[in-house]
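Model the whole thing, not chain by chain.
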Amino acid sequence: MSLDITLEELQLAARNHALPLEALRHPVTPVGLHYLLTHFDIPLVDPRSWRLQIGGNVERPLTLGLEELKERPARTLAVTLECAGNGRALLSPRANSQPWVLEAVGTAEWTGTPLAPLLEEAGLGSGALEIVFTGLDRGIQGEIEHLYERSLPLSEALRDEVLLAYAVNGQDLPPQHGFPLRLVVPGWYGMTNVKWLQTITAVDEPFRGFQQDVGYHLRQSAEEQGRAVTRILPRSLMVPPGIPDFPARTRFAEPGSLLLEGRAWSGGGPVVKVEVSVDGGGSWTEAVLGEGVSEFAWHGWSYEWEAHPGEYELCCRATDSEGKTQPLTPEWNYDGFCNNAVQRVRVVVRSPSA
Amino acid sequence: MSLDITLEELQLAARNHALPLEALRHPVTPVGLHYLLTHFDIPLVDPRSWRLQIGGNVERPLTLGLEELKERPARTLAVTLECAGNGRALLSPRANSQPWVLEAVGTAEWTGTPLAPLLEEAGLGSGALEIVFTGLDRGIQGEIEHLYERSLPLSEALRDEVLLAYAVNGQDLPPQHGFPLRLVVPGWYGMTNVKWLQTITAVDEPFRGFQQDVGYHLRQSAEEQGRAVTRILPRSLMVPPGIPDFPARTRFAEPGSLLLEGRAWSGGGPVVKVEVSVDGGGSWTEAVLGEGVSEFAWHGWSYEWEAHPGEYELCCRATDSEGKTQPLTPEWNYDGFCNNAVQRVRVVVRSPSA
């Protein structure tokens, strides 16, 4: 299968990166293996002069340095983040953008201070409707120059588990994950989790910035406004079994008992079922589903497969507590968001050596 | 410009990643921004049961655990590593492999114990010709199943600065960089620096494994043996100035004094000159060249550009102490190695706002 990729898209694929699927074995993804998407450039921030401003429709605007934020109550949460554009390269026709295959995901332990008490301290005005989060990363998209910014309705921004995070996996944030401070909103796709935060602003009208109003919508044409992308749809991925061919990526395994394993997650509710197919989705068997790494993180799953020589297409499929499940084929949309179609892994089970 | 990329190559581009060019600002690349190439899968290693075996033509074979290695004399070296396939996607026709653009590089501070004293302790036999380094990563390439392994001639293996590294930037190696132990050979392309080491073997005949004898050769056709890839050719890269368009990657800058900056390196000798062109390589001016981050790492460089409104193609070009310099156009070879042609960055300098 050949893809019509531009050099610019390939540059994006080189800069940004997804989770190597064998790294699904780690319940918490090591730094450097977690997926990463940066629209513009990674800012270089001097933490001594950096300040977070909390303002807009609040009674007491706040200015906070990094040390002040670290002195506040801290909370550590394991959270699974996935890019809303994950699966884009498997759609046809395909939007010109970051050409993700299907592994733009990761789970990290984010440490930070909860947002809600800070907003309470600032005192939200009675007309406040949304909270706007503005990063330091500036660029052009859709012919509009802007800082990367996104908003949340109050009801989401005030959730207990929404963090302003300054550490990941016990270390200061590395530059690429938003140093010195980023937003973490469990359950929502990655674009929500604004990195390199500089201002938090309470607004009385719905925020209409590019990344909110134009970007990240499910639409059928460029003209349509469409429906906003919000929470992560259910998905499961497996560690490809056996060994790979470089560069063809076909997997080769020995016959016998083979443990298939992977992770499954959903932003809509806990995953309640993972099924496995060894015939390309023709028939399904339920896998053993483990506990979530946290309330906001993926579940491990496993399936003991008795593998006989032959060629197989392995698939896995997650269902969440809302009854949402993964489709067998992608649901197309113009910008290539939320493609949670099942993973397909081609495996050759070899005949026993003579 | 559209590229004919296979889905398998795109999967490689998603798994592996290059240095986002703005991260050239860091003299030492943060973990997660350093380039990464893994042929097969990243092994999951239990450090308690892991052992390094040193054997072959030695008088006293050694078996060493991780703690024993850490108790030996330690040395920390900042080393620039670059993938031999860097620049491959800019060649035409292009080998089917990891489709790097031009930023598969990074500089890290590797901490480990020097190899030479260990080989001395093991006592090399008089016939020993090469040292073979074998990783734990297994797969298929060129239709041959093998563990990733490479050899070095004794003269290279016994250099003072060749390390068995167990830490990077002051931390235990993350899985993707070779946990628990990897080889670091300053000056040589990345493929030399075997990750997930399990055995080190002294051999009396030239090693003929796939990655040594077939892979990593400069050849004009599949049939030709070609010339082995060894040391890193000179290269310079710049931080693209201004702000980017997502996803077109064109840069936009304001008129006036603009500091162009970047890094330059060579495995053949220190970089002695970096030149900058603002007209696509038509004319060149010498940049200010800084000291190397270490004897084995890249140099910073900078150039103050008086930018007037218009469209430009910025280039930079490094020359090393051996007189080797970067070509303006790639030197084609069948597998797409060692393409160190100059970087070209398209910049639009905008007219002053009315």
